[in-house]
Automatic annotation (TrEMBL), chains A, B, C, D, E, F:
Residues 1-307 form the Carbohydrate kinase PfkB domain. This is 2-dehydro-3-deoxygluconokinase. Keywords: Kinase, Transferase. Belongs to the carbohydrate kinase PfkB family. CDD domains: KdgK. PANTHER family: 2-DEHYDRO-3-DEOXYGLUCONOKINASE_2-DEHYDRO-3-DEOXYGALACTONOKINASE, SUGAR KINASE. It holds the Pfam family PfkB. InterPro entries: Carb_kinase_PfkB-like, PfkB_dom, Ribokinase-like. One of its GO terms (molecular function) is kinase activity.
Amino acid sequence: MKKIVTFGEVMLRLSPPGVNRLAQTDTLTMHFGGTEANVAVSLAQFGLQAHHVTRFPENGLGRSAAGYLQRHHVSTEFIRYGDGRMGLYFLEMGAGSRASQIIYDRVDSAFARIQANDIDWDTVLDGADWFHWTGITPALSQGAADCLLAGIQTANRLNIPVSGDIVYRSNLWQYGKTPQQIMPALTEGCTLVLGGKVLFSEIYGVVGSTFQEAGRAMIERFPRLRYITDTKRNSISASHNQLSAKLFDGTTVYKSRVYDVQPIIDRIGTGDAYMAGLIYGLLTFNDPQRAVEFGSAASALKHTIPGDVNLATVAEVETLEQGDSSGKLKR
Amino acid sequence: MKKIVTFGEVMLRLSPPGVNRLAQTDTLTMHFGGTEANVAVSLAQFGLQAHHVTRFPENGLGRSAAGYLQRHHVSTEFIRYGDGRMGLYFLEMGAGSRASQIIYDRVDSAFARIQANDIDWDTVLDGADWFHWTGITPALSQGAADCLLAGIQTANRLNIPVSGDIVYRSNLWQYGKTPQQIMPALTEGCTLVLGGKVLFSEIYGVVGSTFQEAGRAMIERFPRLRYITDTKRNSISASHNQLSAKLFDGTTVYKSRVYDVQPIIDRIGTGDAYMAGLIYGLLTFNDPQRAVEFGSAASALKHTIPGDVNLATVAEVETLEQGDSSGKLKR
Amino acid sequence: MKKIVTFGEVMLRLSPPGVNRLAQTDTLTMHFGGTEANVAVSLAQFGLQAHHVTRFPENGLGRSAAGYLQRHHVSTEFIRYGDGRMGLYFLEMGAGSRASQIIYDRVDSAFARIQANDIDWDTVLDGADWFHWTGITPALSQGAADCLLAGIQTANRLNIPVSGDIVYRSNLWQYGKTPQQIMPALTEGCTLVLGGKVLFSEIYGVVGSTFQEAGRAMIERFPRLRYITDTKRNSISASHNQLSAKLFDGTTVYKSRVYDVQPIIDRIGTGDAYMAGLIYGLLTFNDPQRAVEFGSAASALKHTIPGDVNLATVAEVETLEQGDSSGKLKR
Amino acid sequence: MKKIVTFGEVMLRLSPPGVNRLAQTDTLTMHFGGTEANVAVSLAQFGLQAHHVTRFPENGLGRSAAGYLQRHHVSTEFIRYGDGRMGLYFLEMGAGSRASQIIYDRVDSAFARIQANDIDWDTVLDGADWFHWTGITPALSQGAADCLLAGIQTANRLNIPVSGDIVYRSNLWQYGKTPQQIMPALTEGCTLVLGGKVLFSEIYGVVGSTFQEAGRAMIERFPRLRYITDTKRNSISASHNQLSAKLFDGTTVYKSRVYDVQPIIDRIGTGDAYMAGLIYGLLTFNDPQRAVEFGSAASALKHTIPGDVNLATVAEVETLEQGDSSGKLKR
Amino acid sequence: MKKIVTFGEVMLRLSPPGVNRLAQTDTLTMHFGGTEANVAVSLAQFGLQAHHVTRFPENGLGRSAAGYLQRHHVSTEFIRYGDGRMGLYFLEMGAGSRASQIIYDRVDSAFARIQANDIDWDTVLDGADWFHWTGITPALSQGAADCLLAGIQTANRLNIPVSGDIVYRSNLWQYGKTPQQIMPALTEGCTLVLGGKVLFSEIYGVVGSTFQEAGRAMIERFPRLRYITDTKRNSISASHNQLSAKLFDGTTVYKSRVYDVQPIIDRIGTGDAYMAGLIYGLLTFNDPQRAVEFGSAASALKHTIPGDVNLATVAEVETLEQGDSSGKLKR
Amino acid sequence: MKKIVTFGEVMLRLSPPGVNRLAQTDTLTMHFGGTEANVAVSLAQFGLQAHHVTRFPENGLGRSAAGYLQRHHVSTEFIRYGDGRMGLYFLEMGAGSRASQIIYDRVDSAFARIQANDIDWDTVLDGADWFHWTGITPALSQGAADCLLAGIQTANRLNIPVSGDIVYRSNLWQYGKTPQQIMPALTEGCTLVLGGKVLFSEIYGVVGSTFQEAGRAMIERFPRLRYITDTKRNSISASHNQLSAKLFDGTTVYKSRVYDVQPIIDRIGTGDAYMAGLIYGLLTFNDPQRAVEFGSAASALKHTIPGDVNLATVAEVETLEQGDSSGKLKR
Ligand SMILES: [Ca+2]
Ligand SMILES: [Ca+2]
Ligand SMILES: [Ca+2]
Ligand SMILES: [Ca+2]
Ligand SMILES: [Ca+2]
Ligand SMILES: [Ca+2]
Ligand SMILES: [Ca+2]
Ligand SMILES: [Ca+2]
Ligand SMILES: [Ca+2]
Ligand SMILES: [Ca+2]
Ligand SMILES: [Ca+2]
Ligand SMILES: [Ca+2]
Ligand code: NI
Ligand code: NI
Ligand code: NI
Ligand code: NI
Ligand code: NI
Ligand code: NI
Ligand code: NI
Ligand code: NI
Ligand code: NI
Ligand code: NI
Ligand code: NI
Ligand code: NI
Ligand code: NI
Ligand code: NI
Ligand code: NI
Ligand code: NI
Ligand code: NI
Ligand code: NI
């Protein structure tokens, strides 16, 4: 069984039932999520041995968060516990022309207090087949950025493929560094990057007039890179989206079908579901076209599942990937 | 008031709230359902005097199941209680491109343990205007098949019309007999059969290149037959289907309008809702076209009602049958 | 901050969870609503100082109703308490081709028992910038009609703009008067009327072959009138509607865009949301076109919010009014 | 199987979840109850054939109320439907030193509009073994009192035993008659009366210094009477009561044990549970001591069951009646 | 109507349903509470005009918190909105021998960021009859302590009575000051102090061997003081407590009855309920004995009410204060 | 960290919310439990490395059951998946004098289909510090009994202590063997047995007039035995019990304090909680008195926790074990 390692913050998500607004609810539904942990949970459903590495507060919330990951078959053996708070976010789910809204409350979390040496990466990555990170982690604190860099470098030393979703959130990055200072060293270690030409230009100064050209320039700049991937979303409403993805391997751009998604049950984590599906595809199929299709189908399915994480199985993704979107009852 | 009798297993259905998956829920919603009992409940909403005949375990689950039927105005006076378990099924409701999934857990139920003589059919069918059965019942056990045959033969003797939905589920039929051995004798007694040309060929060896031709051949083979009916479903997704039905009376094929159903709240029991609507129509209208339209409209409405059973009234079905699908608020 | 005053009955709404039918639920969800109070709540969300004037029973239900208005930032300082019951309505929410259904239970409510002098309108309307009423109130009792007339006349004396939604419900008006006897005097005091040419003709005998002509005739008949407005709804199903509105200022008919609303979460109070948006627009923008667009966008958004009242903010309405219906997640 | 008939209003009960107050809830739990119907439901659980006679509004609430009785095995075949509203009550459940509170909203219900001839008592009471009524019914309207009297007289003519719980609620009796005018004729027809010496004196002017003496005087005054019974409750708190009952047969006073009830889950309908238990006991045991013990044990058990009705079985009551209050798990 | 002003932080409380543990729940129930706001809500139920002064984050959580206070009739007109987070606490409710547990998450809240001049105390306290604060506020930040001091001094200048609950929580006080430095100046302004001899000695160095002697010494040290009060709790289990209180007016110690509280529904805020009852009593009765009895009865009742705030009415408290703890149903 | 291994069936438990009866609920709450797995979960909360060994159906229910164990920190790495159904039980929770009732539905479960060689005990028990089994397992099937015997013999070979709760349920044992045939060989391998003199006599023919004497005789008969333990329960009602335990080490009988437990939230699994506490105590304290006290305190605490498993921590148990049952709030 393939072993995968992810690293990043997990937050407690609190949302009113259904599409109620915060101002009219007296109950909140709990989920836990975080972009990297979402990838781990999804890969665990696909049958891989997924380990998520993070740092939790040493209290009932931290233990519940670990319980959530375990319940969904992710190993928590490398999680550290200590001071700091549980990162939170409040999600008001939208519908139709009303957008969903998030209030983040993650400042000074136990994860943000992680230090470079808190994780013994040699032990964690021993025997691993993939390591995944995102641009959220280095945006949180110097310690998180340092610890991540140590992880990537260990993975490189052990010849483990590394994927990075280089997502940029401008309201993070409060600790005195810019992505331009921090991201290049992290990207050096990557085999696969999720991002588009705007981000490539802003963060690395790498330019190209098309996805393919920008991708080629990225591969030149970061020689370890073998794949560039990106997703595309046409938002007709909060309940109706159209999705697709593409994958560039330095030579060819492989494009997935376009998925028409309606209704949308829960849009959170659908990008992470794509990434997990793509990683699964690359590790399994030796066929970039099928990998990008598998990732896109996984992402489409995630829109039908409440919570941040994709609880779809390989069989379900394959059904959709192979063109059956009929949703016919399975007995 | 017309009296109708149905016969078959009722199962406790357990499903996570909303479209949650089993792996993420700590609560299950209860409904009771079974293809024949669903027909009875629907006809009870239409104002007929519906009796469902079955066998339940003699415990709190059996009593709750009876309470469920009674709550929805079906008489339980002919239900037997005894050993064996309550049949169950777990339903994970899908959405969009994610299919609903059922885990059946009905082996060795109290109903499957029924014996040929457990029901006093002369008493049960006294004064009845219709008797309905389906191909699920003879698939469960020799006792169930025997008891059903006794019921059909009694109905025939008393000149009560009999309808059979000849649905075939290959993972049932575990007791040593095949449908080819059992179904013909049951079908002999039918006035109306729900099925299509594939089933006619597989089960009875009756062939015809169109619905009409196959229907004509069935009527030749089973002289008591007056009507053949079938439904058609185009599954765009688990949330969006298109439905229609047709009815053949030996001469003419009457086709219903096509109903575009979106969103789908609960697809379970929509075929049974059609059958109940058709039976009501045939008993009431003396107009095959109107009967098949009434059945199709009833089936379309069932998609908007949670649970296995159609709780729509005659007035609601007529509104839709007469072309008003606007869903305008009624004050 | 602009002060607005509304006057009318508030009912406790009781509805099964989701789209369940009354016959299958053991729980009811509570909301409070009433066409005039709905306008007040919506304007309170837009930041205005909204006061609702009504009469509640002096018991836990009346106090809960007041608490509901306060929770949503409406002042209840002018509410009276006394004998009589809480008005109620039971709402069964439909979906697709199944219509929602309401059972009213409001006879002899505490509000219907209000008397002409129960409200000190000079105090209530002191400093007010708008007064709003609807045709439900004078339909309930002579006392309610008298008290409303006193309010309108006070507003006229204080030069406060008055809007009237002249909705007509034939099953109300049980106290011996007809709308033809009562409505003209109330309409005399109006600056703005919501209604269409059929109502104008039936209630006032004012005729016109188009909305514009009928509007012009109304303005002639009621010289205080400056605006006529109306909404239009195309009901494709209970889950899918198309909406628009128009506003006539004596010269020009301003038409809003057509909003395609799908899915519909809760259709109740969407007309009131339009009225609140229009009032806000007229008080804020000095641009009739923008006012009618703001009202229509507000109404469209209300369809996504559970309950009778529109909890959308100005920023949310403006996003939609300015053409962004993408529902993209806001972080 | 013994047939029992009860007659009276059934109300929809609405209560916040748990012990929340009305002012803090957004959800209400539904139950249906009424003192006479509660007796019918309890006897149905004991295996008798119970029919409740009442009049419901012809809408979804009336049909749900009938469904509730049917679900709990009470026959509704003699229920009438017509105009008028569903009677309601709002219940705030107390705990410890905080009392439960009820807001009644039952004026002008469909039941209160019943007329003397609405029920064909000869058909209803055909073959009945017991008829039960209470002092609530004649307090609601002249029609209800008349219809009840017709029922009692029919029972007398058919030699069916009649029990009357002569409960007096002063805030009812709004239609112009007093209990002193109405109750004696109803009591004439009774075999068994539930009440105490204060009521006997106030309503009938029948006095006695002890329960026994007052009972003897009642039997003299109403020669058809064979039994007088009463219950006693010591309220330590809303969560802790002590209960007992006594039964006088003209000769001996049979006293039950004292039941210490803690915790109290739902106190509503516990008197009705006693009455049902006593009726069952008198019909079954031919032993007044055992009958009063059975009734008291039934009443004690009802305190542990949510809702107005006693869902305990004969076996459960017998366990407690025979002294086992250990509550040990039954597998 | 008497006007009362309270000042302090309000937190969002999140707790699993019932007595479930955090590790086993997927839903959290919302309440809002804070020791000073709890006093305001309780006094609002008693019919006083209560204003709570605080600072909330300018987002949906801050607006929901204000809505909560308004729903329970507390005025929020003097509340400020700005940066910082919503203070939170997670509550796991215990039972029997299992203690309830709280995880606080209130660091850097919008309230803690309040500054000395953020509140215009002259406007806020205009016409006020009482001002209440607690030792939580000065423990949170220098700004909160400064702002509170300004409030107390304004109240003193306007001759408004001031009460202080001098509760000491050692894990607060993180901003560099000690209670010994901060509390004396605040206590200078008090008319009434809630505390005991241990606190008096630790915080002020004021000693006395009994409550009476220590109280006398406090009054000497703080000449504005007229009353010292304290509560006493005997914890038999998390579900069973015994409560009493005493009030010293410089001359006499008035002791309340001892209340045996079982079961305990929610123990949070029961001290605040005492304080509110005492304030109400002192403002209303001119009888110290009755005031302390009213406060104790209010506190006992609060144990039966879910949430942080006491929703009991004056009538309910008086029933218990006058010795009726029978919890008998009120119709 | 100590490693513990348990072996046995896990069932899905389905229960109505609160103390509702099956006949009145439409929702069921899910828990998973089984006497041996309950011990594992409890020990996992105490910080030990607990592995539960069982066989689950290869479907969503089996995966959810595994997720439940993982969520509560029990390793599922040695669990097998295959054919057969999920074992179920329906639990109706009682209160006061009403007993809880269980309907088992576990026949032919995936676990009952386990075969002797399905578990590689050498791998499973490698490095283990304790192995625990109960008399439920050998009662289910020959395969389960055989597989258990293999486990015990492997533990003996590896010198791992073995505990057996020799509980006897007469309605199990349906596969043709008696406990007298099967239990002795299993008991041969035990270090610790939970049981009393009645069971010792019935199952093994080992007699003794007191617990001490019977224990001594057991140790003679089964030379590997070092400890005999038993629990005692006085059931005052379903909501109020008194508990204690004793432990015999061949020389001395160590008795725990008596715990008065009121209220009882959930009685299921309280014996398993004792066993887990005792095992923890024996592995940790080297003090039999403290071990039996720790076990009894753990059992008392379990009564306050919903579900089958004890989620109490070592710190919580120690608080109670050391005499603090005050349930005082922990901040
Ligand atoms: Ca609400
Ligand atoms: Ca999730
Ligand atoms: Ca969950
Ligand atoms: Ca159903
Ligand atoms: Ca239901
Ligand atoms: Ca609302
Ligand atoms: Ca609330
Ligand atoms: Ca009930
Ligand atoms: Ca759970
Ligand atoms: Ca609260
Ligand atoms: Ca129910
Ligand atoms: Ca559990
Ligand atoms: Ni899982
Ligand atoms: Ni589309
Ligand atoms: Ni969820
Ligand atoms: Ni029904
Ligand atoms: Ni369509
Ligand atoms: Ni349902
Ligand atoms: Ni609000
Ligand atoms: Ni559309
Ligand atoms: Ni709502
Ligand atoms: Ni029942
Ligand atoms: Ni007692
Ligand atoms: Ni209930
Ligand atoms: Ni309130
Ligand atoms: Ni006590
Ligand atoms: Ni609450
Ligand atoms: Ni856990
Ligand atoms: Ni005790
Ligand atoms: Ni649970």
